[in-house]
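Example 5.3 — Polygalacturonase-inhibiting protein
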Amino acid sequence: MKKSIFTISILLIFLPLPTLSTSKPKPCNKNDEKVLFNIKKSLGNPYHLASWKPDEDCCHWYCVKCNQTTGRIIELTIFSGNISGQIPPQVGDLPYLQTLMFRKLTNLTGKIPPAITKLTHLTSLILSWTNLSGTVPAFLGRLKKLEYLDLSFNDLTGSIPPELATLPNLSELDLSRNKLTGVIPESFGKLPGKFLSLHLSHNRLTGDVPRSLGFKNFSTVDFSRNQLTGDLSMFFGPNKTIHSAYFSRNKFRFNLSELMFPASFQWLDLNHNKIYGSLPGSLTGLSLQYLNVSYNRLCGKIPKGGDLQNFDNTAYFHNRCLCGSPLPACS
Ligand SMILES: *[C@@H]1O[C@H](CO)[C@@H](O)[C@H](O)[C@H]1NC(C)=O
Ligand SMILES: *[C@@H]1O[C@H](CO)[C@@H](O)[C@H](O)[C@H]1NC(C)=O
Ligand SMILES: *[C@@H]1O[C@H](CO)[C@@H](O)[C@H](O)[C@H]1NC(C)=O
Ligand SMILES: *[C@@H]1O[C@H](CO)[C@@H](O)[C@H](O)[C@H]1NC(C)=O
Ligand SMILES: *[C@@H]1O[C@H](CO)[C@@H](O)[C@H](O)[C@H]1NC(C)=O
Ligand SMILES: *[C@@H]1O[C@H](CO)[C@@H](O)[C@H](O)[C@H]1NC(C)=O
Ligand SMILES: *[C@@H]1O[C@H](CO)[C@@H](O)[C@H](O)[C@H]1NC(C)=O
Ligand SMILES: *[C@@H]1O[C@H](CO)[C@@H](O)[C@H](O)[C@H]1NC(C)=O
Ligand SMILES: *[C@@H]1O[C@H](CO)[C@@H](O)[C@H](O)[C@H]1NC(C)=O
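Solution (predicted structure tokens):
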């Protein structure tokens, strides 16, 4: 008897909890709804946005996300739809937006609209796998909260604006697979964010990689398939944080012999450059996931140990005089 009263009082205490804890989300802000209708109209009322209808609260629409407390739109993510035209400048009128994405939309053309600078809360901007053209605008340097900027796989031309280095919290920058020219800005060595992942591959960048980049802690650097020159040793050293380095198919020319790596280093692709000297013994102390130094001007014996003999000969072939396992023995 006592027990069942106890059970009932337990039930009484805990049963109402679920209803208490789910406070009702605020309905979608009317201004934001109006802006979204303008965006839809501007994109020619595409089928992809068919769920954007007045009789449904706009927080429940496809491709958007609201803050449940405020009912303001905080994410607009348009992905893989049959959408043609340009990025509507009205996106700048969603003042609480934190994430803006237009991705895998090959019929999206035109330039990156300046209206985006009105989005002062933006932390992620992803405009990728589209046919956007024009330059990487310097005005993106005004989006001070930006942490993630991905403009990869587009038709962007011109040079990389040094202003991007003024973004205090930028931690990942991806400008790969465009048609960018010019040099890597000196200012990138002053990027204030922690552990930057920097992707500039498959462009037409030229010039020496600035030595200033050595002042910065990177996690991943991908410069492959450009026409970059010079030395890369500033990225490496026992006290650095880099773990993945992709530098293949450029014109880098430096002596590899004395390079040191951080203990956590995992991935090194240097193929198709003009790198000389020998393979540093420090490579044997690492847990390498990937190594490719083929098509360079390296010489001497491949150090024995670590993971170095786990890669096949194509990781080492086409050098001046590298030898030893997995290549033929040194004579
Ligand atoms: C939603 O808005 C409230 C009030 O401004 C804020 O405290 C909260 O952090 C926001 N949540 C998200 C997920 O942005
Ligand atoms: C792009 O536009 C063309 C011409 O209107 C159309 O045929 C094609 O299906 C569209 N593709 C996509 C993926 O939207
Ligand atoms: C995209 O939309 C256009 C025009 O509405 C249509 O002609 C085309 O077939 C669509 N393409 C795809 C891949 O659905
Ligand atoms: C978009 O890009 C693809 C491949 O880069 C190209 O084949 C296509 O014609 C482009 N479409 C438009 C509408 O520019
Ligand atoms: C950068 O990030 C820090 C830590 O998350 C935060 O306190 C600061 O406000 C951010 N700066 C800007 C400009 O958003
Ligand atoms: C880079 O990271 C190392 C190890 O975490 C740290 O000791 C060093 O101060 C950092 N350097 C810079 C420039 O942030
Ligand atoms: C790396 O850091 C250690 C300990 O902080 C320090 O003694 C050493 O001099 C540093 N080495 C380099 C190459 O900066
Ligand atoms: C590369 O550096 C090593 C060690 O400092 C040196 O012995 C070697 O001669 C250099 N190689 C070339 C080709 O300059
Ligand atoms: C190394 O790169 C070369 C050139 O791209 C390629 O032919 C070879 O298969 C690669 N080897 C490995 C082990 O990745």
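Remark. The longest strand covers residues 73-79.
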